[in-house]
Write a structure and sequence with these properties.
Blueprint lengths: L6 E8 L5 E8 L12 E5 L2 H9 L13 E5 L4 E6 L7 E6 L4 H4 L7 E3 H10 L7 H12 L2 E12 L5 E10 L5 E7 L6 E13 L2 E7 L1 H19 L6 E4 L2
Parallel strand pairs: 3-6, 4-13
Antiparallel strand pairs: 1-2, 4-5, 5-6, 7-12, 8-9, 10-11, 11-12
Helix pairs in contact: 3-4
């Protein structure tokens, strides 16, 4: 009698040619079938090449590059390594070039600030200014920032849908509405320095501001291209496919 209430029987089988072999029959609960697990992982932009270099190294040779490939998506800023591409449990390692959330919080080209909110935001993010002294000077100037919006000139309505109205906007700018940031553009990479403009707009309710930076757009495009070129060069003897 075997353990776990399993019974085992051995049957000797003799063949005509004089050879024989033993057939073992076991009764009881069969062992659990191990189902292969699919490996799907998403990490930073270096993850696919890190995995490839480790598994495809001369010592390990665990990747058959004939049935594997790499997909590059420049718009989504992703690189994905597919191993055993036709297998239902294929391995997929995706790397994402993540934009720096601290930089994204500035909302350059997108976010608008009321006067008080702008001052609060700049104070909170002073650590990212390339010059702390310039940041303090900017805050002092913005705190004393004056503006006015007056309707002037003639106003007329000819009852034919033609209306003339003169609007005068006056900004008392005793502060330079620009600053430099020194901050990583992407997570895990070094700082870049670039100029940011503060753009004001006057409304009946007061003033509002937003940030613009042509330099940032150019730097992001350049650095993303350099990072992708470096990572793609790490893949040896494997098909590289570009989605766009």
């Amino acid at each position: 009698m075997a353990e776990n209430n399993k019974e085992e029987f051995n049957v000797k089988v003799e063949l005509k040619d004089g050879n024989e072999f033993i057939v073992t029959r076991r009764e009881g609960k069969a062992p659990d079938i191990e189902v292969p697990q699919q490996l799907k992982y998403t990490g930073n932009i270096t993850s696919p090449a890190d995995f490839f270099e480790d598994r495809a190294s001369l010592k390990r040779k665990l990747i058959d590059t004939n049935v594997s490939h790499v997909e590059v998506d420049n718009r989504k800023l992703t690189i994905t390594l597919f191993v055993d591409e036709t297998h239902s449990k294929r391995t997929e390692i995706t790397g994402v070039l993540q934009k720096n959330p601290d930089l994204e919080a500035f909302g350059i080209w997108e976010k608008q600030f009321e006067h008080g909110d702008l001052l609060k935001f700049i104070r909170k993010n002073r650590r990212f200014f390339s010059s702390k002294e310039e940041c303090d000077k900017l805050l002092k100037g913005l705190a004393n920032y004056k503006y006015e919006r007056n309707v002037s000139g003639k106003s007329a309505n000819d009852n034919k849908g033609n209306i003339e109205e003169g609007i005068k906007q006056t900004l008392n700018q005793n502060v330079k509405l620009e600053f430099k940031l020194s901050i990583p553009l992407f997570e895990g990479f070094s700082e870049k320095t670039f100029l940011v403009d503060i753009v004001p707009d006057i409304t009946d309710a007061g003033s509002r501001f937003w940030f613009e930076s042509v330099g940032l757009l150019e730097l992001q495009d350049k650095e993303a291209k350099e990072i992708f070129e470096k990572e793609i060069k790490r893949f040896k003897d494997i098909l590289i496919m570009y989605k766009n």
